[in-house]
Write the structure tokens for this entry.
Amino acid sequence: KNPVLPIHSLRFLLDLGFDTDIPEIKAAVNEILKHQDNNGVYQSLTNIPKHYGGAGVDVFSWCLCDAPLLLLVLLKVGMDYSKYIKPGVDYLVSFSRENGFPCAVSQELGKFRGPGRKDDCCPYATLIMADLLSHIPEYRNTSAAITSVEALLSLWQNSLEQHPYMFYMGTDFRKLKAPSCWYDIVSVAGVLSKYKFIQHDPRFMEMIALIRSKQDEDGFFIPESTYQKLKAWDFGQKKFQSPYLTYLCLRILERLEQE
């Protein structure tokens, strides 16, 4: 949820159009490549306290709520798919279930699991896996992608009753917020808009209608929620139009016109 975590900062820069021509981005990609497990999944330095089921020490490992982001970065910078990306994607997809993706971690993190029922999906893991798969032609229309999309739509439809792992789709979720690095309506609608087969689904159209209703007479959007650590950016305030938030929202709406 911290927008200034290195992985979120890196994704933000890539979204703005920067790439590995920037030395710092190239260095970050090289660091990602240094830590890959035997299943092809890239690892982050993590410390899970013992009372949460972890080892209580810094260890390179992965969670299903971060590993897809590292693979997505490698995709966006143009790394060879077969060599650097496909093995990890194949392995993570093996965790797919009928209700999306669960809270899953690598063996280095022991028995750690988030605050939810084992059989529930993890909404954030499901969201970022849906995002990752939307960029991969061989996976875009598979059951893993389709069930992830359906899981997110179902959570929206049943938002009053269902909030697995304490991920809610209530009032705060429905506020416009940028950048898209967590679980909110702009982030979720942004991922769902990449899947053409749901573009007339009434649940998705309800999300879109809510976003459209917040557009001002100039066609811009004003943030309704912010990350305090990013208050210096145009999307770090709630009084004025935000060009970047407007870009995110218009990108969603434009995808609906590309049928």
In short: The longest helix spans residues 143-157. DSSP finds nine helices and two strands in the chain. Residues 1-121 form one domain.
